[in-house]
User: Fold O-methyltransferase from Penicillium daleae.
Amino acid sequence: MAPPTPLNASSHLLEFLKTVHSQSLTQEAKVDWHSLPDQRSDAFDNIMRDKFIALDQDKCELVYHILRTINAKTVVEAGTSFGVSTIYLALAVAENVKRDTSATAKGRVIATEKEPSKASEAQKNWERAGTEIEGVIDLRVGDLRETLTKDLGVVDFLLLDIWTPLALPALKLVQPYLRPGAVIMADNTVKAAANYGELFAYVDALDSPFRRVTLPYEGGLDMIVYQ
Ligand SMILES: C[S@@+](CC[C@H](N)C(=O)[O-])C[C@H]1O[C@@H](n2cnc3c(N)ncnc32)[C@H](O)[C@@H]1O
Assistant:
């Protein structure tokens, strides 16, 4: 029997998520992962421009679960693509706001994507996803090294689902806004370990305010806590 979903979501939204994850996996199966150009190159971006490369569904569900657990209301997503993981972030934040009894409670998912065509597809997907995630997402189109320099608020959670050379720059930009106990998740940390050297050295340094654990998800998924 399939395990239950942790999501508080309508059947429409659950069905929609199933569909977009399946589209993403179909695309990924056709990518020749062994002969890709360097992630810093235009050639790499050209190949990825029409691809979801969505965070796996089980990882998205875990992220949602963590957001509900830590009561996250301000979330930053580095790497939005067609907006699949953003839906989980927005749904969890919306649920956390609903649970809050104070009249002023607000939630925000700051999503950022450098490719305008991908950002536009993401917006369409959020409309298709429906009203449960309405009014929560603050989409910033452009290079995160510019879009994440201001107006972040106090950040509860950061998702690093980004080309690996951008992971450490994104963390450094968001770090001044992290609240104690904030959680950062980074994807593919075992599969792409060789490319995460700078991030790991920074997070694992002796005087670092971060602690991390690698979770046994496909390709590795790191959970980093800001102490
Ligand atoms: C793995 S995908 C994100 C998938 C998304 N989180 C999801 O689950 O649907 C990474 C995305 O980061 C974007 N990206 C790469 N470099 C970026 C940068 N410097 N600033 C903003 N976005 C960037 C890419 O265009 C790509 O769409």
Residues 52-55, 79-82, 84-85, 112-115, 118, 143-144, 161-163, 166 surround S-adenosylmethionine (CB under 6 Å). The domain at 11-226 is CATH 3.40.50.150 (Rossmann fold). Helices lie at 11-29, 42-48, 57-69, 84-99, 116-129, 144-147, 167-174, 197-204. The two ends are 38 Å apart (CA to CA).
